[in-house]
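User: Can you predict the 3D structure for this chain?
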Amino acid sequence: MTWFVDYLPVTTGNDVRIYVDGREYCSDLHVAINEAKSSIFLTGLHFMWDFRLERIGSRLTGARTELAWVLANAGMRGVSVYLLVNQFWTTEHDIIRPIDNRPDRLKEGTWSAHSGDGQGLHRRLLVEQGGLYNYLPETYRLFSALAQVPNVNCYTDIHPQTWGFGTHHQKTVVVDNETAFLGGIDLTYIDGDRWDTNLHQTYNRNTSRTERYWHDIHCRIRGDAVDFVRDNFVQRWNHGNLHRLTKYSNGRILATPVPSGPRRPNLEEVKGAKSYPKPTGKENEQDRLIQIVRSMPADYAREGAPSWNESKEAWERSCKDAYLIGIEAAQRYIYLENQWIADEHIWAALLNSARKNQNNPNFRILLMLPHHPLRSAGAGRNQELFIGREIEALVASLGDRFGMYSLVQGPHSNAVPTVAQIYVHSKILIVDDCWALIGSANAGGISLEGHYPHGDRPDTELSAIILDKSVVSDFRRRLWSEHLGNPVSTEYLPSDADRFQTLAHQRAHDGQKLRFFPAYGQIRGASSPSSLPSNWHRMAELYSVIVPSFPGSIASALPVGWIRPSFRVSVKPSPPSFGDRCLYQWRCHLFDKFPDSTPTRIEMLSLNGEAVDDFTVYSSAYISDAGARQIERLMQDEAWGVIECRVGLVSWDKPASPKRAISVKYPCRFIRRSRISELSQELRRLLPLWNPK
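Assistant: Here is the predicted structure, written as structure tokens:
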């Protein structure tokens, strides 16, 4: 039986503790940092200076629990603290929060008009859709709070996927080279407070940004496996794309590259010199082994790659290999709990496992997902965005032995409000009560292969494969007991797995916690979709708008060739989340004499470069390079344009063409570069970042 990636070592003799939800992890981390003697290494997608590690009484009497205070205290004690935080792009600046928290009413923030390809503008949409307002300013606040503290070193790290969207997504802490924490929990309030309890209540939680509850998994490891988490940090610190942050008098925050070569301080000397065995393929559930796996993009810190990584490829994909290995090995059950399950190879492996175990009456596959997934998390290569066919195939193979579920807190209707959901952010896979994968890598999206069109630049991720019957069975028992609301058996019983189906059927009517995932419930006929209001199309055509990625005040003076404008359609009222979903068709029409001339069609593309002239899932699009050249070629000094988005509804689970669509339009006027000098004074006033050469 193959349980491990064959090109990475395995370790024995580790002690593991698995945290279900954030409270216990944050408490143990607080104690570990306060007891640190020599060093603390931290990586994360984001940190906030005022994130409180303790909310319900600290085990350290009288201690302040805000992250910046805890780290500063460690530095003052002589502990060396090294902090690496993701930064999306070098040109990332402060985006002012939307008016009344409405993304369609953004104030005019500062954002760089990146070269000539529109990246600096349409990236703003990604920040909006991901709820990442004030992401960089919050990082700067943390760095500023620690700037004068001795022994504390802070950098941002920028992913090599420079075209679209790539992140350093690892969430690790290594204390004294002896204890490692890893998993899905960032120490932040951005997009949701990560501190939560098994009860998922608002008490003691920061709900100023969002009221969503947060379900996540993390773990603590002590033993030889810590060496690999530490070596990963050393590789990134010494050879990554690191930057310092500087804030200027005008409020802009800019990143300055740290010179390449050995960092100061240089951490090479702490790298492990031990040798570890590779897996033999004969491991079993009694061996108690751990293997650290990663996603690591090509062209990133390759010269500093740990010697134990013997991957034949320029990029490391062991997180994806781990998912496929675990699913392939399953003989009793698969439990996959994830923020995003979209990788088509993972879906194919699930279907293959279902068919292989079809005649085993005790075999089960259970998937747990957010009720409202974060769409930007799945904007990766090799993805299945419509999963209806995959769900139908698994149902055909296993019937009720396959189920998909989500979590919602409190009474609600079928159209579950986002604030009521318990957001499933976990990245775990449990197999046969003896094998588990826990870490930062989603089962799809940009975690495993990266953003379109590349297949070798995934997010940086780090997870742990745990082969240990006692640890994994106890983990499954605690996790299922929380979801089901009552204790389950220490040993896996198919009847415990079947309780998910039973309770989801019941709670679809009584408004309790466990629900069917919408597409699954619809396919199974266990839930009926919300009915669409009879006047929805009329209301949507009246109130929906197209939002440009530049200040609306410059729409009548848009210099083609300097700016690639991008556009996002905001559909109002939103269709019911449980039934139909939107598809979008984009057009740009150019008029020589608006509106009395025949329009010319101008090419538009999605933000990841795909065609949008037919209905797609892309709610944002931009004028392509070819389209901009066509506009300049056809117009004289100026021309009128109309951006049109047709929005149609289709069944949530099937990618059919909509039978009826609304039309949303946005007029704008294009000008030649040669006329920019005539309008320079106006443009300087309306677009502060514009700087003519």
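Residues 38 and 79 are 5 Å apart (CA to CA). The domain at 289-524 is CATH 3.30.870.10 (Endonuclease; Chain A).
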